[in-house]
Each structure stands twice: as structure tokens, then as C-alpha cells.
Input
Amino acid sequence: MVQRSSGHLWWQRGVVYQVYPRSFKDASGDGIGDLQGITSRLDYLRWLGVDAVWISPFYPSPMADFGYDIADYRGVHPMFGTLEDFDGLVAEAHRLGLRIILDYVPNHTSDEHPWFLESRSSRDDPKRGWYIWRDPASDGGPPNNWLSVFGGPAWTFDAATGQYYYHAYLREQPDLNWRNPEVRVAMYDVLRFWLERGVDGFRVDALRQLVKDDRFRDNPPNPDRWPASPPYDALRPVYSTDRPEVHEAVREMRLVLDEGASSGERVLIGELYLPIERLVRYYGEGGSGVQLPMNLHLISTPWEAARLGDLIDAYEAALPQDGWPTWVLGNHDRSRIASRVGPAQARVAAMLLLTLRGTPTLYYGDELGMRDVPVPPELVQDPYEKNVPGIGVGRDPVRTPMRWSGEDNAGFTSGRPWLPVGEDHAEVNVEAQKRDPRSMLTLYRRLLSLRRSEPALTGGTYAPVKAADDLLAYTRETDERRFLVALNLGPGPLTLGEAGLGRGGRVVLSTFLDREGEAVGETLDLRGDEGLIAETTTL
Ligand code: GLC
Output
């Protein structure tokens, strides 16, 4: 049954929490998180107040890209447990009122997937056309200049059959050929397999990569590349990504998602690193695309009031009429918010994420203010860092274990954690922060509970409030209620004038958690690094 409240669907009102399964909770003691571990902490997520859990891949995989190289779309890697464990996880989540969103990786498989083993066995194999095979260029080199996101050429030569295969990522991640109808049928069946097991939606990995130019034209050079950017940025990937045909495939995925369910009961989220004008096309005509094309721009926009204000305005203006917004502060691929903006501003960022209009995605551990944990060179695991060392692209520091307590290994495992837990885990952990009425965790929980109880913060309108300097301010409003959100992005005190204040009101929440109930008059004073939510009366 579709659950609506104030005309909004669960994935519009709700908050998505991303779990990186290797790092959330280890039940087996092997130092790597697992499904039983996740199940054992669902009550924490319920307590925290999120609505849906997106779990990064846990399928059988040689782990060349830590699970984003899948060797069997319909199973569970023994390291993470079994299908029965998965069923148990879904049942427990649903019992607690939490939805489960899986990571769907349609662009590529592992090079150990039986489909690829067959495909590479001979040029005449029936599965040859399931992947992207091309003859060498006349000089014997790769068929064109396309680059792998993870460094080096995107083509690998297969000596046995004399052709190159294409891989947008690692050579161990050959791209499927989505122009082949058999591939589509097989991949839609993967969606059905998990839907039948009760999942509530999918986050579609690397969606912009899905269909490539049919003429395999060379990508043009990128004139905007900065000197220290990753090698992939040397070209503009106009022929290898975001092709018009991707939208066709998305429409089909959406039809499969909606089979036997009313539209809106399940959610399709697209991972799309794209400029806003291209991103919003993924809502599809008449809403036939992904319901939530992930807006990842908070991750890359400089943390300045004017820049963020412009981003929000540009995004709100570009959204199609029925397009529901999304906001993401962090994920398993990018530096954590508390490292990007510092611990004080991470609290302001939390208030921003949870009061903007749209579905927020929260990355595990950010609710504790976890920072990137330095990983010494000899312990580096991430293949991206290994291929492109020294420029800070490594993703291990953002994938370190969740901190549950101040015990050894932060209560994550009884074994040896696969990545270091970090040195500040004595304070930055769930147990300690639960007890502290001013902690980051308490702030997140208060924000989540306020969102849940105030429809204006989910379905209400958004309007920017004119402000200067380091102040970012806006209102969220329904007929009944009006909230002013004022965020000080700098270290010095600031005063907000009457523009946003209406006839005054009261403070509902400060990021310092110490001003609740304070009366608001004609002006509002903010301390350095403070964010405030005030309920105000409309003029
Ligand atoms: C996505 C994932 C990333 C992965 C890549 C290849 O960007 O988020 O972790 O390495 O796709 O699947």
C-alpha cells in the first residue's frame, strides 16, 4: 500500500541512511561487517529516526572494487552472510518500519561473472555481444581515447580473442552492453529477484555510464581541467556518458519497479554526477524516469553562503514540476563532511541537509561527526588510490568502521578491523554521544525528530531569505506553520534583520542545542558556526 501523508510518499518525507556493509557492524568476528551485523543495529537506526536504509553491495564478488564488481547478482557473498540472513534483515527492517534500498550495479559486472567468462571465451560465443568488444585501432592500440574513471585507458586487450573490451572503471569491471536486448532482460530479472524478496527500492550505480555512443567517437579534451585533478578529467566524457539512450533504459527499469505495485510505492534512486541541467532530465518525461536523481552538488560546492545559496536556487529553478528534490552530504566515495568543512560547520551542514526541501541521504557515521581516518600507504585497499596514488582520491579514509562504543575497535568487531577505526573513537562513538545532550548524535536525532513532526520541513515550500556575508537563510512553510532556517557559515557572530523574521517567534533548535524556546524579536543573533531553526509568524 502506498503510504501518503500530507500528499507525500514515504521516500519524499523520509530520510535515507547509507550503510557500507563492510564497515557497519561485524557479527562474525572476521573484521568485516556483515548482514547479521546490520540487522542487529536496525533498532539504532529506528531510534535515530531515519526511514530507509540503502545498503552498498553485499553480493558475491572477487572484491576488486569492494563489491561493485559483482560475480552473481542473486546471492550474498559468504563474507556478508546468506540469502536467509538477507531475508531476516528485510523482515526485521519492515517490522521496525524501515525500508530497504539495495545497490543495483547495472553498468558492469565482475570479470569473474559467468556471463563475462563466456563472453571472453570466443568471438562466436552467444554471450560475446553481452559486453563491449571492439577491434584494435589500426596501430593495434585501443579502439578510441576513452579513459577509465579509475585511471588509465578504459580498454583492455584480450590476447586470446584479439579484441579489446570496454570498462568504465577497473579492468576487472567489464561494462555490459545495454544495447543488447538480452542484457536488458537479464538485468531486469535481477530487479525482480530482489523485489520479490521484499526490497523497497534501488540506488542505481554509475547510471550516467550505462549506454555508450554507438559510433564510439573520441571524447574531446577538457579545457577546464585543473592541474591536480584525476587523469580521467583530461577528457570530457561526452560520448561515453549521459547518452540519450540511457533514458530509455531508465524508463524500462522504472516499469519493472512499478510492476505489481502502485507507482510510488517503491523508489528508484540514480547515482548521477552531472551538472544540474543534465541531472534533472533523469526525472524523465511525465515522471517516467528515476524518482530521485541524486543531487550530489553539496559534496562539491565550496562551503560559502553565497555559493550554496546559488546552488539551491539553481536546483529549485531547474526541477521539473513534479520532480522531487534530493540532497546528499556524503557517501563512500567522497571525503566526509566533517573533514571537508570541519567539526563546527559539520553541525551547520546537518541542519542544512535536514531542512532543505527534498529527500536527504545521510552517510553512516556522519551523524557522529566521524572524520576521514588517515590510512597509511602500506594499508591502502582502495583500487582507485592504488591506480592513481598521491592526489587524495583514496576512498579508504571514508569507509572506516562505524564507532559503536569507546571499547577496542569501537565495538565494531571482536576481530581485527579491515580498516583502522581511527584515534578519536573514544569520544566519537554512539554510546558516548547518546549520553551527551549536546553531541552531534543528539543534534541529528533532534533534527530528524523535528522533520518527522513538522510537515512544513518536508512538504512545505522553500523560499530563500536575502542575507549577506556568511549567512544562508530560508523559510519552509505550509499554511499552518512557518520555519526560518538561519545558518552562519562563518566563525564570527552575525545578525539577521527583519527580512526573514515575520512578526517574530521562538527558537526551535540551535546547532549548539542550548537556545530552545528563546523568543525571537525583530532581529536574530547568531554565534559563529551556529545554525538556528525558528518558528515565526507570517506577516
Ligand atoms: C560508483 C560507486 C563507486 C564504485 C563505482 C563503480 O561510483 O559509488 O563506489 O567504485 O560506481 O561501480
The longest helix spans residues 181-196. The two ends are 40 Å apart (CA to CA).
